[in-house]
C-alpha cells in the first residue's frame, strides 16, 4: 500500500528509487539526494515484500519524525519524487512492482530511474572509476534522451554483441526495469561496478553521474556533496586502543 501524507501533483515528475544491491550503492545515493536537496517526506510504502523497520530520522537528528522500511520524498522545485528502501526484500516482488506501476501511471510520472550497482569482478579489465558507470534505457526513454547520453559519452549496457541483460549483484534492478519497460513506462537503470566495503565514494560517483543527465543539483553542490548525519554510524566506533 502506498500512502501519501501530502497532496502533491506529481505529473511529469521523475521517480528515482534504489535497488537493494551490492554495496548498497543505490540506497546510499538516495541518502545523498534526500539530504543535499533537503527533500521532505511525503509518504510511505507498506508491503510484505520487505522487512518492516522503524527508526529515528536519518537526516535530522533533532526531528521526531520516524523513518520506515520504504519512505517517499519529493522536491517541487526539482520535480522529483524519491523512494528510499532501507531493508531487505524477503518475499515475492510482483505485488510491489504492480503497485509501483499503478502509482507511476495514476500520478502521470514522466520516467523512472533505478539506481543500482554490480559486482566489480564482472569487469575483468582494470578501469578508472569514471568508466565503471553504466546505463540501461528503455526504448521509449532512449528515443527521447539517447542523443544526450551519446553527448555525455555514457556507456550503455549490455555491451554490443550481448543481447541478454544481466546485472550481477544488482538486486531487483533488472526485474523492475523489465517490468516497467513491458508496461511502456520510460525507465532507466544507472549503476556502478563496485565491491563490498566503504561504498560512500561509489554513491557520490553515481549521484554525479545521475546529475549529468537530470541536473537537479547545482554544480557546486554536486562536486561537494554533504554526507547525511546517519552516515557517521555506518562503521560504528573506531577500534579500542587497548587492542594495540
Automatic annotation (TrEMBL):
One GO BP annotation of this record: proteasome assembly
Coiled-coil positions: none
GO CC, any one term: cytosol
Keywords in alphabetical order: Chaperone
InterPro entries with a match to the protein in the record: Proteasome_assmbl_chaperone_2, Proteasome_assmbl_chp_2_euk, PSMG2_sf
Pfam families: PAC2 (PF09754)
Entry's family note: Belongs to the PSMG2 family.
Function: Chaperone protein which promotes assembly of the 20S proteasome as part of a heterodimer with PSMG1.
Assembly behavior: Forms a heterodimer with PSMG1.
The protein, known as: Proteasome assembly chaperone 2
Amino acid at each position: 500500500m502506498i500512502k501519501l501524507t501530502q497532496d502533491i501533483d506529481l505529473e511529469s515528475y521523475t521517480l528515482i528509487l534504489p535497488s537493494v544491491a551490492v554495496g548498497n550503492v543505490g540506497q546510499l545515493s538516495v541518502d545523498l539526494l534526500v539530504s543535499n536537496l533537503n527533500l521532505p517526506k511525503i509518504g510511505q510504502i507498506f508491503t510484505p515484500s520487505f522487512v518492516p523497520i522503524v527508526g529515528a530520522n536519518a537526516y535530522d537528528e533533532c526531528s521526531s519524525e520516524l523513518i520506515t522500511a520504504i519512505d517517499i520524498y519529493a522536491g517541487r522545485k526539482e520535480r522529483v519524487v524519491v523512494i528510499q528502501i532501507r531493508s531487505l526484500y524477503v518475499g515475492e516482488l510482483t505485488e510491489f512492482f504492480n503497485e509501483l506501476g499503478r502509482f507511476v501511471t495514476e500520478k502521470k510520472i514522466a520516467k523512472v530511474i533505478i539506481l543500482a550497482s554490480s559486482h566489480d569482478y564482472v569487469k575483468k579489465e582494470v578501469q578508472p572509476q569514471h568508466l565503471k558507470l553504466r546505463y540501461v534505457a528503455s526504448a521509449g526513454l532512449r528515443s527521447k534522451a539517447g542523443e544526450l547520453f551519446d553527448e555525455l559519452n555514457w556507456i550503455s549496457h549490455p555491451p554490443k554483441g550481448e543481447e541478454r541483460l544481466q546485472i550481477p549483484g544488482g538486486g531487483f534492478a533488472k526485474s523492475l526495469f523489465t517490468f516497467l519497460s513491458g508496461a511502456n513506462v520510460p525507465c532507466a537503470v544507472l549503476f556502478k561496478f563496485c565491491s563490498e566495503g566503504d561504498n560512500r565514494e561509489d554513491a557520490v560517483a553515481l549521484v554525479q553521474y545521475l546529475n549529468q543527465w537530470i541536473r537537479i543539483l547545482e554544480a557546486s553542490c554536486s562536486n561537494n556533496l554533504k554526507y547525511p548525519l546517519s552516515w557517521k554510524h555506518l562503521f560504528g566506533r573506531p577500534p579500542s586502543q587497548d587492542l594495540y
